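Field reference: "sequence" (input) and "structure" (output). Example, DUF7905 domain-containing protein:
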Amino acid sequence: MRPTEDKYAGRKPTRIIYLPPEHRPDITPHSVRQYCDQWTKETGCGVVPVFRYRKLERFELFGSGSQVDAATRSVNKWVEYAKSKRGGTLGWHKLSAFDVNRGYYDEINDMEADRKQMFRSAVPEGMNLPCKVTVPWPEKLLKASNTITPRDAFGNKLENLDVIRQSDEVFITLLPQGNPPWQVEIQGFAEANVQAAKEHYLNLVAKIEKKEFSQSETTNLILDEEEGTQVVFQPPPTWWPASSGIVPRLVTSLMDDAGEFRNRPLHAVRLTQVEDELLEALGSIRYEPGSYDFAIRLGCMALRGGWNQDRVLRYGVALADLKRFMEGTVSCQTRKWLFEHSNGVQVLQSLMDHDDTLEPVKTGDGFFGVAPSSLQETRPGFRATYVIEDPNQPNPRDMMPVPRNPGRPLPRASAAGAPLPSTRNCVVVQVDWTEDEDGGFEKMEPKFFKLKAGSLSPTEHMDINLIELAESKVWHFGLESMKVMHKSTVSPVLKTFAQGVKLHPQRTGQDCLERFASYTPNPSARIVYSRLDKVYTFGITGTGYRVEFTAMWYPSRGTPLWGLSVRHIEWPLHLQELENLQPGGSAQWKMDLVRLFFPEDGVTSKEQQKGDGDSPHGNGVKLLFERLMKLSSIIKAATPEPAQHVRTLGDGLANLKLVDLED
């Protein structure tokens, strides 16, 4: 056993890079260990190879933070290179020690790393630091139900602040108990560095406060609650890909005025409620790194909760009871789908006919291609999304211990098998095609995201639902996030899979129902979920909002379903600040967040905007609501409901028995 391997024997690795059979190079264990020693020296992260039947199976990494990421980049780069080379070209003579220029720069980098390492320890005795500042700890964190101190937040020696210490080149020390308690002293050689470290430290503290005291809640507002008093239920339609929950529908009692809510503005109290929730949700993410998607989706409605589903389906409930229980045990779920294919095509044609409300724009994000001359000539964009099990999470079948002959010693603990994960970790692979200057479609660089451990969907940060109960539809304000994976840290398995995703131009026509993209099967890329999207993009006239009407192919269905979402063209620009946010950083959003994301004129946010006095956050949300209701009217006219879903007052309600949900 080599010294590096002996040092980490019996310890749980921070990260595992698993090599599937098709990516295992033909190289001797001795050469692999030489590379591991080099990576350990370069990155400061322990890299230990693990062999199975004398074949390289995986690398175990022992380190923290940026060290592990640096080692991952080095290993992935080598694996990609090694796959296309023979064993003889991967030998010891290719190490950096035999490259004079590289050896010189490596030595310079090592000296710089050693200098920065100094800031992770206490201030050396006798060192005079001219700049210092003392930062108090918030009193409300000490008075919280679960008392939080700097040691609780950043570790006993504040080791979680090491990134700030090294990047800003400062010493951060917890002062002895005084008045006020738990003060932190920041010292450095330059005033600018000390102030930068103070700002980063305060941002981390603000992040803790947001997480501890955030009051973001689900907001459910029924827009047509004045048009009926009873609610009936039915099972999900058979065309839904997923059939959990039940579908509510308001029995309208005002037949002539049904849908009148679309012509009225949102009540001031409700408008304030929506704006406050938007402000809370957007403010809670400004310190959280990740790739965010902010969208308003119109989708089918389903309810899940602790009630007797059979009784509710048979008898229905009073609207007042439903509202009360939606504030408690019953949850409102908004599906991403809105129509099956036949109705979706009708709505698409109706949207293209309403040039008084919509205008032609470029496909996708609006930066590529040419805007069509009319709505009828709008061409779609294409996207393929795959949720794949993390290849660096070993398959339990491959982790069975190697059989040993009687009398032979057992292998060391870490070589007997990688620790099996308790939850499944997944990665999202996203491939887009955009229209080029010649009218064709160009494949964009694939994007890779990591989902929260054990989850198959992005993390939700906002849940605001404006419900059209008579239609069983919801306008859902959603803010989702995933962790960005930089290409250098992505497994070669995922890169190879993304390269194998192909678009079939002959299947991109509006009338074609076949799947427009395919992928090359890979035994190491285990697909958990997939979806193909054909996206038609329209602009809302006079604003920066974009309507995306999307045909979605799900694995369980042969024909596409259709969904609708609304986004502002500036939202990705604002949220992009969070993608590469460093520890202690924050989004530089200077103005009111509601005004920033919902401009007064609907076009662009301005620093000096002033509202008309109806709302402290301006009229941006009010303007958006009016546009959403116009879209709702277009969709309603394109897909009229069957007559039996609309009843006059007293028609058929005499025998309707209401259920007490508390029974």
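The chain has three domains: 3-98, 119-213, 219-399+423-645.
Residues 87-93, 413-418, 642-663 have pLDDT under 50 and may be disordered.
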